[in-house]
Amino acid sequence: MTIAVMAKDNAHPEKGTEYANNIGDGGFILKIGDKILTSSEWKAKNFFHGPINSDVNNPKVKHTPIPEDWFDVDFDDSKWGAAKEFTEEEIGPKGPFFEHDFKGAKFIWSADLKLDNTVIFRFKVDGPKATFYTGR
């Protein structure tokens, strides 16, 4: 099984800033049961970066086309880098975060927490091989 997630920071599509001229930050965390936890074992690739060089006065962005099949099980993410882990202090989650159990999961993003605004994560989950009834 492959888990594929598109995460987006709240960034203006042409400026890369949020709330007027502020540089935002992303961060993604997920826990499914006790075995599927976000960590640097996940793959991550950025598709929207900006404002380039943190220039909020003359903001420019870079958009990379998102592959149509990014969520397919057999999509080739072999050239993608590992997600980078961030601490709770670096992310600064808001109140509802603390109402849920994320024990063991790490906040992840691409390498640039501040300027990467759309990141796709992928994680392959190994499991028991399926046995199919053949009718014989």
Structural notes for this entry:
This protein is an all-beta fold and 136 residues long. It has one domain (2-124). 3% of the residues lie in helices and 27% in strands. It has one helix spanning 88-91; strands at residues 2-8, 31-32, 36-37, 43-49, 62-63, 81-82, 84-86, 107-109, 116-124. Strands 1, 4, 5, 6 and 9 form a five-stranded antiparallel β-sheet that branches. It has a two-stranded antiparallel ribbon with strand order 2-3. It has a two-stranded antiparallel sheet with strand order 7-8. A hairpin with a 3-residue loop joins strand 2 and strand 3 (36-37). The longest helix is centred in the middle third of the chain and has 4 residues, at 88-91. The radius of gyration is 17 Å and the shape is globular. It starts with a strand and ends in a 12-residue tail after the last strand. 23% of the residues are buried.
